[in-house]
């Protein structure tokens, strides 16, 4: 039996954060190199790892992010191996090397606590959603793990002159330097998204990438603030 299960054993640690299969991320924890992770995402760990739900640094930032709820992040610290997942969603691991990424909060699984992060208003979308839409901007040197409902596609917006349009319900992340605008469509309600009637898309242009998941079923998308 052990031989039959050997193929599912984790590979030797090669880096701070890496995939174990498509639906789980393995994080090599070290004292002083803390991690923020989505509350409830821990599925296993080895060694000594402690968890602090809704730490002060998260509460301060989350006042703009959440309304009447605790921030869905916990601080992880200690030494060992930490395994994270989110209901079987695909996990995408990114190493930011001084780069920035604007992430839909519901697709944010984990990130190094040393990274700079905060809530930002999505420019160009206020007239389409009341007071506007909000995202989480992460930048600096460190690792980020995102979730996707299925294998995502990464669109390079700088490859052509045409703008890239995305259903907000399928949007995971994008380069913050991209220009963003909204587009309304009254006839595409039955073709785009899961709603009916009026629909809108987000248009991106410039040099950068857009990460899109093949699903529109998540109920907690970019938050509209009224």
TrEMBL record:
Q: State the superkingdom.
A: Bacteria
Q: InterPro entries per the record? A: AIM24, AIM24_sf, Trp_RNA-bd_attenuator-like_dom
Question: What Gene3D superfamilies does the record point to?
Answer: Mitochondrial biogenesis AIM24
Q: Where are the transmembrane segments?
A: none
Q: Which residues form a coiled coil?
A: none
Q: What is this protein called?
A: AIM24 family protein
Upper classification of the organism? Bacteria, Bacillati, Actinomycetota, Actinomycetes, Kitasatosporales
């Amino acid at each position: 039996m052990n031989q039959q299960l050997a193929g599912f054993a984790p590979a030797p640690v090669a880096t701070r954060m890496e995939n174990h299969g498509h639906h789980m991320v393995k994080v090599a924890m070290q004292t002083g190199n803390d991690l923020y992770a989505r509350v409830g995402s821990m599925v296993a760990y080895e060694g000594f790892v402690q968890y602090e739900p809704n730490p002060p640094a998260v509460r301060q930032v989350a006042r703009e992010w959440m309304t009447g709820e605790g921030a869905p992040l916990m601080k992880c610290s200690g030494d060992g191996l930490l395994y994270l997942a989110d209901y079987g969603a695909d996990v995408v691991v990114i190493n930011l090397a001084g780069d920035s990424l604007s992430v839909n909060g519901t697709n944010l699984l984990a990130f190094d606590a040393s990274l700079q992060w905060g809530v930002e208003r999505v420019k160009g979308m206020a007239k389409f959603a009341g007071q506007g839409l909000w995202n989480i901007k992460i930048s600096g040197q460190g690792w980020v793990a995102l979730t996707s409902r299925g294998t995502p596609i990464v669109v390079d917006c700088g490859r052509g002159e045409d703008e890239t349009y995305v259903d907000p319900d399928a949007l995971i992340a994008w380069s913050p330097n991209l220009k963003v605008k909204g587009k309304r469509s009254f006839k595409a309600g039955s073709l785009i998204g899961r709603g009916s009637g009026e629909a809108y898309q987000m248009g991106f242009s410039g040099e950068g990438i857009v990460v899109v998941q093949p699903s529109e079923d998540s109920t907690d998308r970019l938050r509209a603030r009224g």
